[in-house]
Design a protein that fits this description.
single chain, 187 residues, alpha+beta, Nucleotide Exchange Factor Grpe, Chain A, domain 2, 3 domains, three-stranded antiparallel β-sheet, three-stranded mixed β-sheet, 4 helices
Length: 187
């Protein structure tokens, strides 16, 4: 019985070999397919390398751009006030001359007049750069514009909730509060 089984197995394996044998045309087709797949692999590898190189160059270019913009931003921040400060320098010169004249002057009216000229020049400078004073005295207290330092009894009923005194002036730069008015509110 074992012999019969062995003979049957041999016959089956011979049939498989006959089925799996390739004719010469099929062999050349398989070789052609392998060559074309090798060519495709080579082409794809070249494309991959090119893509990786483009990616590296793009990443390096972006990194350089980021560094350059950061450097330009830092320079802009450092030098942003330069033109403004240059325009203030003549006012400092005027104050220096005023102090020198005030120390030697006997007529205080002329010193006062000179200081008023410098003060008006400074106010004009601020107005030209968009800085405006917050009007506060006798106005209703508004937390968007004012900072209450203290409250005192109002001198009259009309002054309740209104600003009685200004301790420190407030300023607006282009509709944005840059310093709140420090005020005394009547209650």
């Amino acid at each position: 019985m074992l012999e019969e089984k062995s003979i049957v197995d041999d016959e089956i394996s011979d049939e498989r070999l006959n089925d799996e044998e390739l004719n010469p045309n099929e062999i050349t087709e398989v070789d052609a397919e392998e060559e074309s797949s090798d060519d495709e692999i080579t082409v794809l590898q070249k494309e991959l390398l090119e893509s990786q190189e483009k990616y590296l160059r793009l990443a390096a270019e972006f990194d350089n751009y980021r560094k350059r913009t950061l450097r330009e931003k830092m320079e802009l921040i450092q030098n942003a006030g330069e033109s403004l400060l240059k325009e203030i320098l003549p006012l400092v010169d005027d104050f220096d001359r005023g102090i020198e004249v005030a120390s030697q002057a006997e007529d205080m009216d002329s010193v006062r007049a000179g200081m008023m000229l410098i003060y008006n020049k400074l106010r004009d400078f601020l107005n030209n750069h968009g800085i405006k004073e917050i009007v506060a005295i006798n106005e209703n207290f508004n937390t968007d514009w004012h900072e209450a330092v203290t409250k005192i009894p109002a001198p009259s009923d009309k002054m309740k909730g209104k600003i009685v005194d200004v301790i420190q002036k407030g300023y607006i730069l282009n509709d944005k509060v840059i310093r709140y008015s420090k005020v005394v509110v009547g209650e």
